[in-house]
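pasting for the record
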Amino acid sequence: MDQIKSEKDHDAYWVEGIAIKEALHRLSERERHILNLRFFSGKTQMEVAEEIGISQAQVSRLEKAALAHMRKHIALRGER
């Protein structure tokens, strides 16, 4: 029984990974860059702001908007 559940969990993670990749590709280059720095490079909003030459508040707004776009795309994908 544990093996069956494990396979289902693995499949769910795999599908979620595909959905996230698709959603990332729908973002602008700037949004993708900010999310990569924040979540894959582990930088703070302040570090990202300094690196790309904008304010921390702008990074926060762009990050929030990018995540909202991703959520929307993933939700729409799930309705299919």
